[in-house]
Amino acid sequence: AALSRRYVLCEVVSEDPRCRQCIEDRAVGLAVREAIGRVHGDYGLACCAISFTVKYLNAYTGTVLLRCRKDSCRLLCSALPFVRQLESRNQRYPCFLNTLHVGGTIRTCQKFLIQYNRRQLLMLLQNCTNEEERRCIQKSLLSCSLTEEQSPSGEEEDDDGTE
């Protein structure tokens, strides 16, 4: 049976620069599960746990892609604002997850992220103080694109991907 999935694109926002080093699959997964448990109890946690996973993570940009079943997406999204910290090596780093986009495929999330990054770069460009800064940002803007890549197994992650 085909299972509908949703992909939730978030960014980890923190004032603490050390927070970047603790952004890892396990820490994010635990923080999200803990928030779901606090907000929706054991029932909500069980509903979300069925297909929940941290699908992609970039510690440098703080970008996180979560996957869940379509029918538990609202439970997951409503708990995300309650993530208050990430824990790594017994250290706690205050942060929050800013939800950027919810999509049916990884590809739609990638496309959204490119547009989002382009908008962020344009805002930076408007606030440039010197020509060197301006050139660097313009170069980054030109490199914003999605390259066609087929996975080795030939599978395309989409709405009804089964595992």
TrEMBL record:
GO MF annotation: an example: ribonuclease P RNA binding
One GO cellular component, as annotated: multimeric ribonuclease P complex
GO aspect biological process, one term: rRNA processing
Domain of life: Eukaryota
Keyword vocabulary terms for this entry: Nucleus, rRNA processing, tRNA processing
PANTHER family: POP5 HOMOLOG, RIBONUCLEASE P_MRP SUBUNIT (PTHR48414)
Purpose of the protein: Component of ribonuclease P, a protein complex that generates mature tRNA molecules by cleaving their 5'-ends. Also a component of the MRP ribonuclease complex, which cleaves pre-rRNA sequences.
Subunit description: Component of nuclear RNase P and RNase MRP ribonucleoproteins. RNase P consists of a catalytic RNA moiety and 10 different protein chains; POP1, POP4, POP5, POP7, RPP14, RPP21, RPP25, RPP30, RPP38 and RPP40. Within the RNase P complex, POP1, POP7 and RPP25 form the 'finger' subcomplex, POP5, RPP14, RPP40 and homodimeric RPP30 form the 'palm' subcomplex, and RPP21, POP4 and RPP38 form the 'wrist' subcomplex. All subunits of the RNase P complex interact with the catalytic RNA. Several subunits of RNase P are also part of the RNase MRP complex.
Protein name in UniProt: Ribonuclease P/MRP protein subunit POP5
Gene: Pop5
